[in-house]
Amino acid sequence: MGVVALVPAAGRGERLGYGLPKALVPVGGVPLLVRAVRGLFEAGRVQHVVIAAPPSDVDIVNTVTAPLAPAGGAVHVLAGGAERSDSVRLALAYALREIPGTTIVLVHDAARAFTPPHVVRAVVEAVEAGRPAVVPVLPVTDTVKQVDADGVVVATPDRAALRIVQTPQGFDARVLLRAHESGLHATDDAGLVERLGVPVATVAGHQDAMKITTPFDLAVAEALLVGGQA
Ligand SMILES: Nc1ccn([C@@H]2O[C@H](COP(=O)(O)OP(=O)(O)OP(=O)(O)O)[C@@H](O)[C@H]2O)c(=O)n1
Ligand SMILES: C[C@](O)(CO)[C@H](O)COP(=O)(O)O
């Protein structure tokens, strides 16, 4: 079956504040986006990757990612949109139009650059087994509070029923298309699929798939790399 990975990478990285689009920020000398795309191909289940790049950086993204594709595969780069959901929508439309046989789609943040290949495989295998939508998750280890507009606690949800959600998220391509046809925004793609009433399954995520958002996250990634754990 044709597995295509969409990589939203068009964010500015405002919270990181590095002075470069986040996808191009190096960790151990290698841009986050290069690490993320390399991890997808290393899983051995993805032939094509479609990257939504910062509009001003399409050429440089092309240059640094094109050599990563395996024989018979390719990296495709296009300009991303204003919001993450827009970038995914543009990449999905490209894949369905230009890559014949696209039946399973992964959506993977460039910012989750250290996701282990076995997590990618677990997501693909669950979709292949018939799940229309699959997300990798971790248990919540902190106690979580719900607060009102004044910051006053109104509830303490049972954390046993909560999960932290990562990427890649995997979908039957037709389901993801229907979800994105709404034109709505959500913080993740599964959130749009849930609104269709389609069940979203979970598989085990991994701590290394952390999203690099802040300078602290970047420092953690550098430290893990030096320590040989990433
Ligand atoms: N218009 C956008 C915004 C985000 N993304 C991508 O979506 C992923 C998750 O977004 P996030 O980590 O929040 O990245 P940024 O939007 O760059 O972060 P910030 O909000 O700090 O600017 C990233 O790989 C980012 O590049 C995207 O493709 N298009
Ligand atoms: C898709 C995601 O990485 C799942 O955890 C996350 O929701 C992206 O959120 P962001 O606000 O765009 O960083």
From TrEMBL:
GO terms for biological process: isopentenyl diphosphate biosynthetic process, methylerythritol 4-phosphate pathway. This is 2-C-methyl-D-erythritol 4-phosphate cytidylyltransferase. The keyword Transferase applies. It catalyses: 2-C-methyl-D-erythritol 4-phosphate + CTP + H(+) = 4-CDP-2-C-methyl-D-erythritol + diphosphate. It is an enzyme of class 2 (transferase). Belongs to the IspD/TarI cytidylyltransferase family. IspD subfamily. The record marks R159, K211 as: Positions MEP for the nucleophilic attack. One of its GO terms (molecular function) is 2-C-methyl-D-erythritol 4-phosphate cytidylyltransferase activity. InterPro entries: IspD (IPR001228), IspD/TarI (IPR034683), IspD/TarI_cytidylyltransf_bact (IPR050088), ISPD_synthase_CS (IPR018294), Nucleotide-diphossugar_trans (IPR029044). The keyword Nucleotidyltransferase applies. NCBIfam families: ispD. Its EC number is 2.7.7.60. Catalyzes the formation of 4-diphosphocytidyl-2-C-methyl-D-erythritol from CTP and 2-C-methyl-D-erythritol 4-phosphate (MEP). Pfam families: IspD (PF01128). The record marks R15, K22 as: Transition state stabilizer. It comes from the Bacteria. Pathway: Isoprenoid biosynthesis; isopentenyl diphosphate biosynthesis via DXP pathway; isopentenyl diphosphate from 1-deoxy-D-xylulose 5-phosphate: step 2/6. Keywords: Isoprene biosynthesis, Nucleotidyltransferase, Transferase.
